[in-house]
Amino acid sequence: MVDNRRISLRIPILGLSYVGKTQIMNRFILNNFNPSYHETTRANFLTKELELENKIATIEIWDTIGLEHTHSLGRSFLRGTNAIILVYSCDSNESLESLKTIFETNKNYYPSEHIYIIFANKKDSNNRQVSYEKGLQFATNINAGFFEVSAMTGENIEEAFRSIINKCLIKLN
């Protein structure tokens, strides 16, 4: 018998190296933060089960390599994803500008009704280069959700993931 309450979601995290993609994933899945940097050299994923709206969701969060070298993931990697998280760092204007390029390069691989959310990580940084308004404007331009988050403190991480998961559940119903 098939359990209609169970669903699976696959959500990749895209962005440059050093923006905190791995830390965001670890904070959400493991409630853990490691301040030392270890470059992601291949795609990796972690899973978490959540109960939301009488459904049990198994969420696969895919951590990708930094995209400054390729900018393009290709159709095969993005096929079967339910949503995409685009991450930039509040302390790096370059990371936001590069994210715009990553989005433009890959948007033809995404279905037109795909769900996007922007995570502006390191909102706790004292060296802010990207204003809240600038990040929100980019999100608005591509019809994406927007959250400023801190993987270090955990601020807004749970809320941001629940937002994207709820959007996926609505779309699947």
UniProtKB/TrEMBL annotation:
GO terms assigned for molecular function: GTP binding; GTPase activity
Keywords per UniProt: GTP-binding, Nucleotide-binding
SMART domains in UniProt: RAB, RAS, RHO
InterPro entries for this protein: P-loop_NTPase, Rab, Small_GTP-bd, Small_GTPase
PANTHER family: RAS-RELATED PROTEIN RAB (PTHR47977)
Name under which the protein is recorded: Uncharacterized protein
Lineage: Eukaryota, Sar, Alveolata, Ciliophora, Postciliodesmatophora
